[in-house]
UniProtKB/TrEMBL annotation:
<dbReference type="GO" id="GO:0016903">
    <property type="term" value="F:oxidoreductase activity, acting on the aldehyde or oxo group of donors"/>
</dbReference>
<protein>
    <submittedName>
        <fullName>Indolepyruvate ferredoxin oxidoreductase beta subunit</fullName>
    </submittedName>
</protein>
<keyword id="KW-0670">Pyruvate</keyword>
<dbReference type="InterPro" id="IPR052198">
    <property type="entry name" value="IorB_Oxidoreductase"/>
</dbReference>
<feature type="domain" description="Pyruvate/ketoisovalerate oxidoreductase catalytic">
    <location>
        <begin position="13"/>
        <end position="189"/>
    </location>
</feature>
<dbReference type="Pfam" id="PF01558">
    <property type="entry name" value="POR"/>
</dbReference>
<dbReference type="InterPro" id="IPR019752">
    <property type="entry name" value="Pyrv/ketoisovalerate_OxRed_cat"/>
</dbReference>
<dbReference type="InterPro" id="IPR002869">
    <property type="entry name" value="Pyrv_flavodox_OxRed_cen"/>
</dbReference>
<keyword id="KW-0560">Oxidoreductase</keyword>
Length: 198
C-alpha cells in the first residue's frame, strides 16, 4: 500500500515551480514530516518545461512514476496536458487558466489547442482551474502566481494551511511576504476554501 503523498508541480522556466516545491518542503519540516523532492529542468532559460517532484512521507526516492501522482499542480494549461499522464484516471489537477504558447509552435506553424479543448481533454480528472494571473495582480504582484496556485491546491495537500502559509513567509524574500501571503489566501478563496488560516 502506498504510504506517500506525491505531488508534481509543472510549469515553464521562470514561473516559480522550484520556489513552490521549497514552500511544500518547508511546511513538511514545520510539521516534522518526511519530505523528498527533486527538480528536472528542461531548457528553463528558454521557456522550457520544469517539473518539481515532491514526496511527502515517502520511504523511497523523490521521482514520481507516471500514473501514480496524487496531485498535479500545473502553472499553465499546456503543461497540464503535457504531464497529465502522471495522474491516474480521476486524479486531482489544479491548473492555472493561463496558456503560454512555446516559440517552437510559431516557428513550425503548429495549431495551438484552446482552453476549452484542453479542459475537454482533461475531463477524466478532478480539475480545479483558476485565473492565477488575475489573483496575483490583485495580491500585488504578477510574480506571485506560483503562491496563488499553492493556495488553490492547499485543500488537496495533507498539510495544515497554517503550516503552508508560515512556509510561504519563510521561503519568499522578506519584502514580498505580505504580497505572497495575500496571494496564498486569494488562491484558497478561489478554490472555495476558507482564505484565512488559524
Amino acid at each position: 500500500m502506498k504510504s506517500s503523498f506525491d505531488i508534481l508541480i509543472v510549469g515553464i522556466g521562470g514561473q516559480g515551480t522550484v520556489l513552490a516545491s521549497n514552500v511544500l518542503g518547508e511546511a513538511c519540516i514545520l510539521e516534522n514530516r518526511t519530505v523528498r523532492s527533486a527538480e528536472t529542468h528542461g531548457m528553463a532559460q528558454r521557456g522550457g518545461s520544469v517539473e518539481s517532484h515532491v514526496r511527502i512521507d515517502g520511504k523511497f526516492g523523490s521521482l514520481i512514476a507516471p500514473g501514480t501522482a496524487d496531485l498535479l499542480i500545473a502553472f499553465d494549461l499546456l503543461e497540464a496536458l503535457r504531464y497529465r499522464h502522471y495522474l491516474p484516471p480521476g486524479g486531482r489537477l489544479v491548473v492555472n487558466r493561463r496558456l503560454v504558447v512555446p516559440t517552437s509552435v510559431y516557428q513550425q506553424a503548429i495549431d495551438v489547442p484552446d482552453e476549452e479543448s484542453i479542459l475537454s481533454a482533461l475531463a477524466d480528472l478532478e480539475v480545479t482551474c483558476i485565473d492565477a494571473a488575475a489573483l496575483a495582480e490583485e495580491a500585488g504582484s504578477i510574480l506571485s502566481q506560483n503562491i496563488v496556485m499553492l493556495g488553490a491546491a492547499s485543500g488537496k495537500i495533507p498539510l495544515k494551511p497554517e503550516s503552508l502559509e508560515e512556509a510561504v513567509r519563510i521561503c519568499v524574500p522578506p519584502k514580498t511576504v505580505e504580497v505572497n501571503v495575500r496571494a496564498f489566501r486569494l488562491g484558497r478563496e478561489a478554490a472555495g476554501l476558507n482564505p484565512s488560516t488559524p
